[in-house]
Amino acid sequence: MVNPTYSPKSPHVSVMLDEIINLSNPEKGGIFVDCTFGGGGLSKKILQFSNTKVIAFDRDKIILNFAKDLKKKYPTRFSFFQNKFSQIHNIVNDQLADVIIFDLGLSSIQLNDLKRGFSFKSEQALDMSMGLTNLSAEDVVNNYSEKKLKLIIKILGEEKDASKIAKNIIKSRATKKITRANQLAEIINKSKKRNYSQKINPSTKTFQALRIFVNKEITELVMGIANATKILRPGGKILVISFHSIEDKIVKYFFNNFSLNRSNPSRYFPENKKNNINLFERYKNQIIKPSNIEIIKNPPSRSAKLRYAIRSKNSFIFPEKMKIKFKRYLDLERSHA
Ligand SMILES: C[S@@+](CC[C@H](N)C(=O)[O-])C[C@H]1O[C@@H](n2cnc3c(N)ncnc32)[C@H](O)[C@@H]1O
């Protein structure tokens, strides 16, 4: 059954809530870390099970009131940190978690707040910060070189028309500063070849790229899931809902290559060159997707993919290979104008 968690006090419908609850067994109690609190729908659901404790994170201060409401209701079982989830191991450092959940991306609360500039319909500021970053999309589109803009749009947005879009951004900003989201959307529209079979808005990929860059989302994901594994108890579960292919690629690589059945090294590979860090038990390369009913009720859920892995008994060693594998993205996010 789909759980419609929408209410005016929590205007974000949690994605795959039933699937997460079924996989994480809150009826057994335990310590749950909700790395992406958002509208709080998931934390709220877990707290309905009386033997659970929830430690929640979100980088955005917009959700502080939802967190305060839950704290009032569950003063001893709920705690909230306005922080980035890459810092999870520095905050949850005196206990091990039973379940850690990441529901990546934006909430509808952020998307529908037009002054944040996440939506290409917005006639307001081109900001795109999710909180705890000094950068805005306006800084990037008005100050970064054509070469850097092209790389951001191509690599983080997987946009094939990145060159043309970057060129037109430079041309346009020479006459007028780009300050509104819909102004940027217009430049992108003009740069893209008309393809009427395309179902997604022409601006989707460029907006995704800028949002990822402004918030350093790939660095956050790589560091977040690695550091979360450090504080997960043996037998505990890590669950990640991703919304685009770069995110899913990273999660799949991490679970696959650091599990007991890692598919990576061949038996012909010298023993000492094999990746010997087994952080997870046998990983079933399984993707769980929202049901058709959920997609109809909540269309933004359509691109969601849920993967999970179970922590092994082995002690934690930081999976440095992740940083090498995804270096291209991490270097790009670290770079400046
Ligand atoms: C899709 S929403 C989560 C919705 C939530 N599961 C619910 O049931 O309402 C994602 C949330 O994660 C937050 N977020 C994204 N990246 C983050 C990060 N690196 N650290 C902390 N919070 C982050 C966003 O600000 C947003 O509020």
List the helices and strands and how they pair.
Elements (H helix, E strand, L loop, with lengths): L16 H8 L5 E5 L6 H7 L4 E6 L6 H10 L4 E4 L6 H4 L5 E7 L4 H4 L25 H7 L2 H12 L4 H14 L5 H11 L12 H12 L1 H14 L1 E11 L2 H13 L34 H6 L7 E6 L9 H6 L1 H8 L3
Parallel strand pairs: 1-2, 1-4, 2-3, 4-5
Antiparallel strand pairs: 5-6
Helix pairs in contact: 7-8, 7-10, 8-9, 11-12
The site of S-adenosylmethionine (SAM) has 21 residues, from helix 2.
Task: Supply database-style keywords.
alpha/beta, DNA polymerase, domain 1, 2 domains, 12% strand, binds S-adenosylmethionine
Describe this structure in words.
The protein is α/β, with parallel strands linked by helices. The protein has 2 domains: 17-109 and 218-321, Vaccinia Virus protein VP39 (Rossmann fold, 3-Layer(aba) Sandwich); 134-215, DNA polymerase, domain 1 (Orthogonal Bundle). It has 15 helices and 6 strands. The protein has helices spanning 17-24, 41-47, 64-73, 88-91, 108-111, 137-143, 146-157, 162-175, 181-191, 204-215, 217-230, 245-257, 292-297, 320-325, 327-334; strands spanning 30-34, 52-57, 78-81, 97-103, 232-242, 305-310. It has a 6-stranded mixed sheet with strand order 3-2-1-4-5-6. Helix 2 links the parallel strand 1 and strand 2 (52-57). The longest helix has 14 residues, at 162-175. Residues 1-8 have low confidence and may be disordered.
